[in-house]
Specification:
The protein is α+β, with helices and mostly antiparallel strands. The protein is built from 20 helices and 7 strands. It has 3 domains: 3-101, no CATH class; 116-201, no CATH class; 242-477, Serine Threonine Protein Phosphatase 5, Tetratricopeptide repeat. The strands form 2 sheets. It has a 4-stranded antiparallel sheet with strand order 3-2-1-4, covered by helices on one side. The longest helix is centred in the middle third of the chain and has 21 residues, at 297-317. The two termini are 59 Å apart. 31% of the residues are buried.
Length: 480
């Protein structure tokens, strides 16, 4: 785009000039960011006339070159430093006002390149964390590596490691789980790498959506006018009704008799094919895409269906669990039976087919699958299944308790685990097992007093609970 981006935050004002997407110049009314400060910093003699009548810092710099007081190279270096500092300040502003003036046609421009990508990356390392959290709304959003990576960036070890985890498009939630960093830290890194063009996001709100970028200063042939009543993209297929699309998908998934059929891949599929199939399903049918169906029975069934998809991928993506699954599947196929848990009556409620499954029955099915996944150490699959069960039947203490227990196994989700376990205790206050689960979570969070209190409550309900007694002894002796 070409024009002037004007930004204001309280009394501070700044302007950034652009031509065809290229940064030309930036200035601010903050004293610390005026050119005279930089000239003095670089040792310009105090008696040098600075031409106070100049209309801008850029004019002042040009006059210094004309008078032979500074070389063009020296001025370029100082201006790059000044403009970079202006941008460093602006990139940390998360509130204020902005406007864009397409009519502005600046004639002056810097002769040196500003390290824009590095400035973006540096800003993300410092910007308010709550702001970054608000920029990631969809855990199913796909993150992928850029086709051509910039070679002028100074990445930290953490940033370099996270980039190495993105071999193929990966859902945000999965990338957070495999990053090995606390979730807040991982989000900050992902945000910075995306700003810098190292990673790409599937969904990114564009503030300038609807504005036309100026592609070239040369006259362009006017586009052919669209037919009246038709959008420019009318040649594309019309969007399908969300309810119809989800219903058809659930009916198709209900016919799947194995994890391979769930992902719609052959039993000989390579690891890469499995991943592509999973990402394709995530891109098309992740529950977050169908926000218009939120809080409907159909949406709850879609969440349960996606938990099944996650479980299928978790099992097949691991070579050991896939081998064990294949052995069982072959034996059951030979015996003419389905693999336990693979059949799933996924007919959505209210479709008029007479064979719909209730939320409670579907929740019980997802719970059993979650328990099996937890036993096998497939934490992500267990979390997905228990989450679906908890959403389908939130008043069932068992669903909330085991969802919390699975979440508690991941350091970055332990706060959410506390909420779920507390809900389970409220729903079934006389269940000693749930209180022991909550006590173990408090221990892991570093709250020994709360843990002891919950264990003692558990023992008051079940004095013979050996797990509670052992935990209490360890807590009082300082052991884990």
């Amino acid at each position: 785009m070409t024009g002037a981006l004007r930004v204001r935050r309280q009394r501070a004002r700044a302007v950034v000039y652009l031509r065809g997407g290229e940064l030309l110049y930036a200035a601010a009314n903050l004293r610390a960011l005026r050119l005279i400060k930089y000239l003095k910093k670089h040792g310009l003699p105090a008696d040098v006339p600075l031409n106070p009548g100049s209309s801008s810092d850029f004019d002042l710099a040009g006059n210094l070159v004309k008078q032979g007081l500074l070389t063009q190279n020296a001025v370029d270096a100082i201006l790059v430093e000044q403009v970079s500092d202006v941008l460093r300040v602006l990139l940390l502003w998360t509130e204020g006002e902005w406007s864009f003036d397409e009519r502005a046609r600046p004639t002056a421009s810097l002769r040196a390149q500003i390290p824009i990508r590095q400035l973006f990356l540096d800003a993300a390392r410092r910007i308010d964390l709550e702001f970054i959290e608000g920029r990631f709304r969809n855990p199913g959003e796909l993150i992928s590596a850029a086709k051509s990576l910039p070679d002028d960036l100074r990445l930290s070890a953490s940033e370099g490691f996270l980039v190495s985890r993105v071999e193929d498009p990966i859902a945000l939630a999965e990338l957070l789980s495999v990053s090995a960093f606390p979730e807040s830290a991982a989000r900050r890194i992902i945000y910075g790498l995306t700003l810098a063009g190292v990673l790409e996001r599937e969904n990114w709100f564009q503030a300038f959506r609807g504005w036309r970028a100026e592609k070239s200063a040369a006259p362009q042939k006017a586009p052919e006018p669209a037919a009246e009543g038709l959008a420019p993209d009318a040649g594309q297929l019309p969007e399908r009704d969300a309810e119809e699309e989800v219903t058809e998908f659930l009916e198709q998934l209900a016919r799947a008799k194995s994890h391979y059929e769930v992902l719609n891949v052959p039993t000989t599929a390579a690891a890469g094919d499995l991943k592509l199939a999973y990402y394709s399903l995530a891109r098309r049918f992740h529950p977050d895409r169908f926000h218009e169906l939120a809080r409907t029975p159909l949406h709850r069934h879609l969440e349960a269906a996606f938990a099944r998809i996650t479980q299928a991928y978790e099992i097949l993506a691991n070579a050991d669990s896939r081998a064990a699954y294949d052995v069982k599947l072959a034996a059951l196929t030979q015996a003419g039976k389905l693999f336990p848990g693979s059949e799933s009556a996924m007919q959505p409620t209210g479709t008029g087919n007479g064979g719909s499954i209730s939320d409670n029955a579907l929740a019980e099915q997802r719970f059993r699958e979650g328990a099996a996944a937890l036993q096998l150490g497939q934490i992500n699959a267990a979390i997905a299944c228990f989450a679906a069960a908890a959403r389908l039947a939130p008043d069932q203490a068992q669903n909330r308790a085991y969802y919390g227990r699975a979440l508690g196994s991941q350091p970055e989700s332990r706060r959410l685990a506390e909420t779920e376990l507390q809900a389970a205790v409220r729903l079934d206050p006389n269940n000693a097992t749930y209180r022991v689960m909550l006590a173990e979570l408090y221990r892991d969070l570093g709250f020994p007093r709360r843990a002891i209190a919950e264990v003692e409550r558990a023992l008051s309900l079940d004095g013979k609970n050996s797990q509670a007694r052992s935990l209490l002894e360890n807590l009082k002796s300082g052991k884990r």
